[in-house]
Every structure is written in C-alpha cells, then in structure tokens.
Fold each of these.
Amino acid sequence: MTDPLALLRSLFDAAVAVADPMRSLAAHLPPRPAGRCVIVGAGKASARMAEAVEAEWGPCEGLVITRYGYGRPCAGIEIVEAAHPVPDEAGCAATARMLRLLDGLGEDDTVLALISGGASSLLVQPAGEMTLAEKQAVNAGLLASGAPIGHMNLIRKHLSSVKGGQLAAAAHPARMLALMISDVPGDDPAMIGSGPTVGEPGTAAQARALVARYGIDLPASALSVLDGESGVVPPGDPRLSRVENVVFAAPSQSLDAAADLAQREGIRVKTLGDDLEGEARDVARAHAALAREMQERLAPGAAPVLLMSGGELTVTRRGDGVGGPNAEYALALALYLGRAAGIHAIACDTDGVDGAAEVAGATIAPDTLARAEAAGIDAEAALARNDAHSFFAALGDQVITGPTLTNVNDFRAILIAPA
C-alpha cells in the first residue's frame, strides 16, 4: 500500500477535484437564453462557477461576490472579492449593487444565480436599522456559539434583506435558475448560503428562540428585527413561482470519488454518511471508538479499511486558540485513539479554509502524540483552548491547499490497518 498519509491526501484531492465547477457545472447549464440574461452569485466557489458559465456561453453580464483570494478571470461577469466568514464593507457594497442590477427586470429576462457555501457572509444587506459593524458582531457570535449550520442560517436569514428567498424576490418577475454547490448536511437548497433564492418556512420568532437557546448576545437593533415583521420570503410566495433551484455538486459525489480511488488501492471502504453534524471533539470520540473496534476485527495481513465521512462539524469556543472544526476533530481523534498503531487520518474542509484560518485541515499518524510530547507540546491543553491549528503547525502536519475554488464541506477519512 502507498504511504498512508500520502494516500489519504490523494483521496482528499480526488474529493476536491470532482467538485470543481469547471468539471461539473456545464452538464447542468441550459442553452444561453435569447433575451437579456443577468448572472449573479455569491460563495467561495461562485467565481469559478462564473468562469465555467463563460466557458460555455461566452462573455456575460453580471456580478458575483467571492472570498478574498478566490477570484477568477471572467470576460464580462464582474468578480468582487469580500471577507468571509465575517462580512465587510466590500461585500455590503457589492450586495447593494447586485440588488440594483436585478431591479426592473421583466418577464422576458433571465437570471442565472450561482450559489455556494460562503454566500451567507458574502451577501450582506442587514435588515432594519442594523449597521455593518453590528452584522459583523452577529456573525462572530454565531460562529462561536457551537450552533449547527441550519440554526445559524435561520438566524442569519431573518437578520438579512437578501437571504431566505429575498434575492429571488428582488429579481421577480424574471425567470431564475439557481445552480448550487452544496456544503450543508442533507443538501437542502434552503440552507446553502442561507437560501437567497429559496423560500423559508421558519419564523423570526423561531430565530429569536434559537438566539436564546445558544446564548448569543445580539445588539438591540438585531433583536428589534427579530421582534418585528420579517422580510424572509415563505415557500409558495408568488415571487418564487419562476425560480428553479438545482444542486449540481454535493458532498456525496466527492466521497464517492475518494471511495473509488481507495478501492482501486485494494482498501475496503465504509462510509459513515455525507451529512454528519455535531461538536467536532464529540464526533472524534465516537469515530475513534469505531476505528479501534474495527481494527480489533482485522486479521493479520487483512486489507486495510477506510472510514469516510462528510458533513459539517462545529466547535463551541472555549479558549483563545486558533482552530477550526477539522483540525479540532483531528486533534481530538489523535487523543482518543491513544497512539493506536496502524491508524492514520485526515480531516479537511474542501474549500481549503478550516474555520477562519488559511488551512484546510490536518493529518494524524500513530506517532502524532509522541512527536508532540518530544517537542514539548501539550495536546490536551491545545484541545482545551481550541488551538488545534497551532498544534499541527508546530508538527508540520497541516494540510494547506490555498483556494480550492469549490466547497462541498468537510472530508474526513480514517485509514485502519491491522495492528
């Protein structure tokens, strides 16, 4: 078998490659409309999606907002880079321009919306009297709360004038096709980028209850929005009647690509699901127990087994370290495995950014804890202060990809050989 860590990295690379919009979008793109067609979009993959559209249709009119460093060259579509995961003025100004671009479209016009993970932070139009600074504080509070993505997005929608179907409503009565790359468990279009083109049945009162549940400290202006009349568009609203939402790339496809590669290497694959959620360290504990149990069943000389999973884990911030869900999962997994021989793992975000760091994730090996101890690094203390990125940086075990130009969320793989 190939070097275990090199193999795991190749599996991650395969998962990312199959979700590249330049490979996956064209098959879902209709012929270019005869009338006016406006391209809009937001997300970490949106510029690459725009590039893929122009590769098929030629230069187009439009505006797309992506993360800093994720821009791509386009002939007609304007690409604006803005901040993620906490929004900034560039995203706010570009969102306002996007809404103006959609204003006044008619029934014979078409809008192609390109949505991927990250749009929640890049499409910025605070509701009510909220300022950008208050919106930034809300996003930071949500990210530190440990709330699952679905709950965070419901709150975001009701504090926004563009999410929760409101982008689509702004384009009415034009036709709209929204092409999406899923980064959420279950691939629900309403959750991808906080569903700017999809109706939302959840209410502002439910969002208010979630704020209380997770102890999120909101400014008075945000509480006022949640206590008032929401602009979120409910399913069935006539303004959504000409909208089609299509998810064309999803975590399941990436896991399948990695599984195919592993099987060609003679490895047995068990997939735990593409929609896992939960606290990163808690999921790591369960996966470590399962990995050890499966290793005990392997006879000497048996083929290795690969445990794969996707989804989106969360971290409840307890300390002041630098980390992200994938790195924290990997660090916790190393601790729970207890230096078990024959078990290696990788945990990375397919967008190349784990948390707020420019790091995709990390790898672990049976000697991870021993090397840390020899270097005077306390793994348990690093986990306690949410400092997984610093831990793996010191060991040289980070996975750094740079912008991957796609986003189908977490990729985790545990390679188990007989002890």
Note: The chain has a mean pLDDT of 96.
Amino acid sequence: MTTSTRGAAKTPAVLVLEDGRTFRGRAYGAVGETFGEAVFSTGMTGYQETLTDPSYDRQIVVATAPQIGNTGWNDEDDESGRIWVSGYVVRDPARVPSNWRSRRSLDDELTAQGVVGISGIDTRALTRHLRERGSMRAGIFSGEALAPDAELVERVKAQPHMKGASLYEEVATKEAYVVPAVGEKKFTVAAIDLGIKGMTPQRMAERGIEVHVLPATATAEDVYAVEPDGVFFSNGPGDPATADGPVALMTTVLERKTPLFGICFGNQILGRALGFGTYKLKYGHRGINQPVQDRTTGKVEVTAHNHGFAVDAPLDQVSETKFGRAEVSHVCLNDDVVEGLQLLDQPAFSVQYHPEAAAGPHDAAYLFDRFTSLMSTVREGQRA
C-alpha cells in the first residue's frame, strides 16, 4: 500500500474489481492504492468497531448504509489497536461529525492510519454486483496510483485470493496478557487469540472470569499452564482450511474434555476438529442484522456477523464424531448456513457469529452465560 494525505477530499479515485467493473469517486482517507477482497457490511451503526475488527484483515469493506461518519471517531470503541480493513468504501461521508464522545472525524482517522478509501460512488449498485457475482479481489486507486483501467485490473488480478489465505497469525497478539475478572474471580479461561476483539474478554470478565489471552501459536502446555476452567477460541480472518495448528490444539482440548467455547473462526476450527469440512460463501455474512435460530431453545436472535467461510455439517441429524455426538445448534434463517455446533457427550460448543457485539445487537450475550454454566457444571462434577 502506498499513501499520502494531501487534498484527499478533492482527489479523484477509482474502485476496480477483478471482473473489470469500475466505480469512480473521490479519495476518502489516505491517497494512494490498496488491495483486498471486496465485501459489504450491512450494519447501520458501529463502523468504528467494524474497521478495527481483526477479522477484516485484507478486506476492502463497502458500507451499505448511505451516510457514514456522523458520529466521528472516539477513543473508547476500538476493538483492537488499529484499523485492520485494507480499504473503505462509502457513498456519502458526513461533512461534520456530531457526537459527544467524538474526538476527530472518520476521514481524519483513516488518513492518520494510512487507510485508502473512496467516497461518492453508488454503493447500492456495488453491493448488488457483489451479491450477484460474489466477493472478489479489488483495488482502490487515487492520486499518483491512478492509471489506465486495463492496467489497474491486471494489478488487482495479480493479488492473492482469500481462499487459501492464512491470516490469523498476522493479527494475533505476540505476547500473552491477562484481562482480570470484574469483581469476584470465579473462573479462569485461556483464550486463543486468532484475531480476538477487545470486547470479547471484557464480556467474560464481567462474568467473573479471569481471561488469559494467548497467541495463536500457543501450545497445549501454554494453555494448561494457566490452569484453565475453560478454553476459548476467538474470531479471526482468512481461510479456516489453513488453520492446522489451532485445529490440533483444539483436538487436545477436546481430548481432555475441558469446557470449550468458540466464536466465528473458532466455530470453523471446532467443525474441522470434529471432522466436518469448511467452504467459502458466495458473499458472506457481514453486519449486525442477521437472523439466527438457536435450535436448543427455538428462539430467534438478531445477531452480528463477519464471516466469509462456513462449516459444512448436516443440519437435520446428529453426527457421530471421535468426540461423541455432535449437532448443529444454530442456523441462519436467511440461507440455512450453519451458525453453531455443540457436542452432546462433552462440554463444547461454538457459534459462527459475535455474541460480544459491542455495537449491538445484544440478543446473543447469553452465550457467555452458557459458557459460565458449562464450566460451573464441570467443576461441580469434579468435586462430586
């Protein structure tokens, strides 16, 4: 990525898709060039949480909400230490942010972090194109990076595909750290960082859990050195088919029958550990308005999603695995994609979406309570 920052608002820019479709607008944020997988997010709010979500590594995110930036940028809502998207696409950027917590504009923050974006394009047409053709490689070009369209298309087509990409180690912490329990400490959890969001350990801490966040390269010895009551596998970017290390670690956790909870990438890791396959969705689920049914209760939740891959598991039957019986516990009501798994003979479950959902909705927050109950049940059984 090459960037500069002068006169971005008046600088011509172009978004180029690998199939040759182009969208012309104005530079938004830094000026230069960037590449990634073009995807769309349907959230009406929460753009700061989206931009700082490590799961969006190497993706150019298209905001479907027509106006973005109204609430500016604050110092409290980041989900990690930086913006992870490789580019940002908006239709109508707010001219003046207005929120009591705002410290600067979204445009200023994108510029400061060197994130190349584009504004003033028909994001509805772009979203329809991606829904029909599928997520694809793309590039944003502005300033000195502009060139004839044919040349830009070839530069985009030279970029790697998301399928087969191993990205989780790029975004994970390099050093372990601890998020202390709020109030009385009740449990200890080892959380494997595959791209964890800041609100996730916070949600556990609020329930009396001391969270030891470990690097993606953590070994079983590292995990059990903290004497965990449970093990958590986080969200993260890239193709789960490349995550052999996390799958091997989860297999060990399952063999030891330690209570286990996974979200998003962690759900896909559990699927692989149980012997199921994974596959790439046409355009994925990204936003904060996805309807999911919890089959264990029959309830329907509105949930926050960010995933381009899914688990290939049978929806309407119990499967036999080397760790006992497993079933699909949650399903997306839009397209029947597997949104959760659970083991019936030992304490392990996962969901494909984000129950921490800092920007909302909070329908799925109960899953952290379910994890706490699971650890409590296992502890009581060990004492009996």
Note: The mean pLDDT is 95.
Amino acid sequence: MTRTLRGAIAVASTVALSMGVVATATGTSPGQAKQDIKIGLLLPESKTTRYEKFDRPYIEQKIKELAPDAQIDYYNAAESATTQQQQVNTALAKGDQVLILDAVDAKSIQSSVEKANKAGVKVVAYDRLAQGPVDAYVSYDNRKVGELQGRALLDALGDKAESGEIVMHNGSPTDPNAAEFKAGAHSVLDGKVKIGKEYDTPNWDPNNANQQMSGAISALGKDKIVGVYSANDGLAAGIATALKAAGMNVPLTGQDAQLDAIQRILLGTQTITVEKPYKPEADIAATMAVDLAEGKQLPDDLTPVTVTSGSGQKVPATLLTPVVVDKDNIKDTVVKDGLYTVDEICTPAYADACKEAGLE
C-alpha cells in the first residue's frame, strides 16, 4: 500500500469520525447531518467492464458509508460527449452539490465544468482530468502506466527488439490519459525499437483496434512485426483477434486487468496488463465528494500533489501507483486485491493454463 493511499484511507476514517463528533456537538444524528447531500456520478461508458462492475459500486458504497442518507444520481454517457454535457445539466437541475466526473472528452466538457463552478457546484475529476475549474482529481500516475507497458514490451522482446517492427495502438485522442500513456511508452521505446505503424483509437473501440491491426499486418507483413503496444485491454482484445486470424503470436501489452486479459495472459496471447486497483481510487473520490458536499476544505493528505489540466488550471490531486500483472503474479495481484476469484479466472477452458501458473 502506498503512503498516499495509507494517508487517504486514514483521512477517510478521520472524516467519518469527525462527522459523528460534529453531529453530536450540534445535537443532530449523523444521518440528519448528511441527509441533504446530493452527489452526481458521471461515468463515460460501459464497454470497458470496469465502470459498471467496479467503479460505480465502489464509489456508491463508500459514499453511503460516509454519508448514509446521501442521494446519488448516476449517469453513464455511453461514449457520447454530448450526452455527458446534457447529463451535467440534469445533475445541476436536480440540485447535486458535487459531481464526480469521468469525462468522455476532457476538452469539450470544460464548458459544463465552468457552468457547475458558476452554480457553486464542486467537481471531482475521476480517473481522467477534465478541463476547466475542477476542484480535485484522483487517478493513477498515467505516464508511469505507459512506462511500465513500454518496459514490459521491451523485456518480452529481448533480442528481437531490433530485428523487426512494433505496432502501437494508443487510446482515444479525446482522453487526456491516453496522451500520458502514449508519452510514457514512447519515453521507454523510442530509440530501442522501430515503430512500423502507430494509431490513435477513437473511443477506445476494440473493433477499431482490430481493423487497425489487420491493416498493419497487411502493410508491414506478419513476419516483420515482433510486438504490439496496446494501451488497454479492450484494444488488446481486438488486436489479439487480428493476430490470431493472421496466425501470429507476439508480445502484446494491455491495461485495466480485465478478466479476459488475465485469461489471455494465462494462454500466452497477451503478455502483461497493468492493474490500477479500482477500490482505492473510488474510495478517495467518494471521500473527496463527501468532504466537498459538506463544505469542508480537502486535507493535504487527501491531495498531496498538484497537477495542471489541459486548460491550465492547477488542481489538487492524488495519483496512485499502478502495478504490472503477468503470468507469474496473478495470484498476488488481481486475486489478492479481490478483483477476481480463482474460480472466475479458471473456467474449464483455462484450467490447464491455471494449473501451470499455480492458480489452484
């Protein structure tokens, strides 16, 4: 557990305790003190399994733990920046005091953030740093994610790094995290490998990645491609399908520790993924939101760093540390962290691979 995370969890505990003390001093119950809290939760899409399976329930659970009577208004933008802007308008009309916002498009959402700010509504940027007057931000060190991916790809290539070309599949150009993953990967890969083809992938769409990879194989020739950088596991799924169709199996990266990616790692059709444990990130976002809804200033332990958004705002933030997951540490990462049980991973199709990896 990182020092930042320990501090955040400690702060969350202190906040919960202090709420009770304040309520007692004013002669009201904790429930009464929090009954008027209204928080809007705006997530970007549902194709990536993390949002509905992990982020939403973890955030809602933590908010209810800290403020049992809080009203939570949930919205999913289904990859539409326009829809998300409309959802912000709806949240403001409902009287939400704080928005936890994971932006579809960090730039286009700026006008909505500014509108919220003018209305006195606080905005916690979640996972992606939206532009505009954001009040707080929690995510992972996204440049570090790209560095870890690039290093893992180089390690997997070994002596083959200079014998062919790699293909790079970056994320959506509207996602500021994608630019950081890309920059981190390039900082490791540039000068060490030849990049035959490189793509940005709109909406993080696996189908687009599949088409891009098929096009790269046709253009470069399958014998010249020695490895593939994929910015996340969704893209890796589409890429892996294209590689299999071409009869290829080369090192392939990913991110998000999706279940299908863990299973591909066991089979050897994906090399690594990067885990960003969802619960610590969700807990910190929920703690920030409850604090802000109660009119409190966020403590330094909860926002130990400052980041600069694409629109130039200085935003107090927490950046957590990502972890590489490979075939050798599945049990000590995603299983230990409670993302998946061994039974969920080791369905009959993966039984032999699980046994070989010590997942029993």
Note: The CA atoms of residues 231 and 276 lie 13 Å apart.
